[in-house]
Every structure is written in structure tokens, then in C-alpha cells.
Design brief:
Elements (H helix, E strand, L loop, with lengths): L13 H8 L4 H17 L3 H4 L10 H23 L11 H6 L8 H21 L8 E4 L2 E4 H23 L3
Antiparallel strand pairs: 1-2
């Protein structure tokens, strides 16, 4: 079981996501998130999944696409840092990703298959990281980050968005 990253293993807004996972088994949380996210989104029709709770907010399809895209970026960062690459990694513009993806034209089964593939790859990566490699640090989005912190960020980011789905989308 990975322990919670120390304060010097993450910076910036990443702490918000890490706090959502707290002292849970992060790898178990990634599995639990996969089940919860898949169950929640699999129950939606394409019409329901194109719902936005406000005109300037993402649709549920866009949100699911965002989860997969962000996990790809964060897993890549985790890989680079775990393997000892200290090259600073830039941030990314999530809104640009959404604007250029056209998730509305992708079916829910395809979006879910993509999400599942990304999560399977992340879980496979976490199984290949040696214990000492989890503590390696690098720079991402101008913050010092450990490989371990990124496992927590991925899980916490998803929890953050699942909370938003339940509070703002499903209640509307």
C-alpha cells in the first residue's frame, strides 16, 4: 500500500485532489473509482450524457473525456518521474483539450471503453513501479511532484469530478 505523499512531494492545486483520497489505499481507490465511474456513466443514454447543468459547463460526455485525457497526462508524468526523468514537465490546457475533442459525437460505449483502457494502463503502470521509484521527484506544472503524488492526484481528481456529477448534474 502506498502511503500518503508528504507535503514536499506535491505543490499547487494538486493538494486539493490528494486530500480527497487522504489515507485510503490509493491503488484500491483507483479500482473503486473505475467501478463507480463505469457504473454511473454506463447508465446514461447519449442524450443524457450530452446534458450540461449550465450553458458554459461541460457535458457529461466531455467530463468523462476530460477524466481520460487528464489521467493520460498524469500517468505520463508519473511514469517520467518514476523512471528518473527530471526534465520539467509543462502544464496543459484542459479547456483546449475539450474544445478540440468533439466528445459529443462519440458514443457513450466508446467513451467508456476509452476510459477503461486508460485506467487499465494506469493500473498496469502502478504495478511496475518499484517501491523506491515512488519517492522520486520531478517538476510538473511548476510544482515539485513525486511519482507517488501522481497516483493520488489521479484518484483524487476523479473523486472531485464524481462529486460534481452527483451534486450538479444528477440533481438537475
Amino acid at each position: 500500500m502506498l502511503s500518503l505523499p508528504a507535503a514536499d512531494e506535491f505543490g499547487g492545486h494538486f493538494g486539493t485532489y490528494i486530500a480527497l483520497v487522504a489515507d485510503r489505499d490509493v491503488l484500491g481507490q483507483l479500482e473503486e473509482n473505475r467501478r463507480d465511474t463505469t457504473a454511473l456513466f454506463a447508465a446514461l443514454t447519449d442524450e443524457q450524457a450530452n446534458f450540461r447543468y449550465a450553458p458554459d459547463k461541460w457535458s457529461l460526455k466531455e467530463l468523462l473525456g476530460h477524466l481520460a485525457d487528464t489521467e493520460r497526462v498524469m500517468s505520463y508524468r508519473m511514469l517520467r518521474i518514476a523512471r528518473g526523468d527530471t526534465t520539467p514537465l509543462p502544464g496543459f490546457d484542459q479547456d483546449s483539450y475539450i474544445a478540440n475533442a468533439d466528445f459529443s459525437g462519440v458514443s457513450m460505449p466508446q467513451l467508456l471503453a476509452d476510459y477503461e483502457a486508460v485506467r487499465a494502463a494506469t493500473l498496469s503502470l502502478t504495478r511496475s513501479i518499484a517501491p523506491e521509484a515512488w519517492l522520486r521527484k520531478g517538476t510538473a506544472s511548476n510544482a515539485t511532484m513525486s511519482a507517488r503524488a501522481f497516483a493520488y492526484v489521479i484518484a483524487g481528481h476523479e473523486l472531485h469530478h464524481l462529486n460534481i456529477v452527483r451534486d450538479r448534474y444528477l440533481r438537475a
